[in-house]
What we know:
alpha+beta; globular; 5 helices
Amino acid sequence: xxxxxxxxxxxxxxxxxxxxxxxxxxxxxxxxxxxxxxxxxxxxxxxxxxxxxxxxxxxxxxxxxxxxxxxxxxxxxxxxxxxxxxxxxxxxxxxxxxxxxxxxxxxxxxxxxxxxxxx
Length: 119
């Protein structure tokens, strides 16, 4: 039986993936299926490729949101897209505001890790 996800375990998993993925920071709107979005992730070939619109979401929130999709992809297969997005949005808010933003050291670690990965 796999260990349960805790906030600490989720954060560790996201940071590990962040160390291997390529992030493209864009200042233009991103569209997925004809709808505007703040970020998207593609992981069908090689390491995950995350594209974010920094003006819509902010770097940390957008990257964290997409990393949660990636880290929890096996758990999310049971849900349709709508429910998955609701779950990921809730977890993003919790991880961002309930865990990372409360700690200046953590916030700086995330912003530095993301800045080091932006291409």
